[in-house]
Amino acid sequence: MLRTLTATPKDLEAMRDRLRSEIHSALELSRQDYVTFECVSVPNGREQTYQFVCDRHGELALDDRGAELPVLEIVSGRGWRALLGLSVTWARQTESRSRFLGCQLILFLERLPRSQSSPAKQVMRLEWEALDLNSNYDNDIAHPHWQMDLANFAEVRTDKFIHSEPRVRDSIIPATDVPDLSWSSKLHLAATARWMTAPWGKERPLPHVSGPQNMDELLSWMASSCRYVRFQLEEAFGE
Question: Global pTM?
Fold first, then answer.
């Protein structure tokens, strides 16, 4: 049976230190690129979110909710640069115990050469939400899962015109072609599943649902996810 992951303040301090080391290795950062994770307070004082803090090469990007997220450039090529944001959130239950709420890796893309009129935009997310207090999920969505944010890259085309007949109107009517990609963000693509041995049906727990059962699983998953995204982008951007 899946269980909800909890941690003590000491566990969270150890998590922060280990994340710094794991991410340095996963992203192949140099010794000069000092990266750590610090707790960001939220208004209600109950949630604790850990995010990148960088003293070199660190930047901020706006996510889809309009919030600033610290990011790192991980690779560039083919007229693009890719930036990565990473966070993990816990809910404080008591002074001595916090419950895992979720973690996310967000990928941003920015066109090169850089321009203030064309900032980095969110293009993809890898999310792992927590089990509820009853160690369940309230829907059939896969956890963890990938989500695409393709709508951010839908371009408005203004180079198409409708030419009317001169007898009717002696003018040119501009037309726009805006592809609707908003549906793409509603797709939750499974990041892990046991479908080869447990076909998806009505059984519970779902074969495409899992929650981190201990801190080692969570940290290993986060570091490996960063490493894999960097590896894939290097392959994709390679000449």
Answer: 0.84
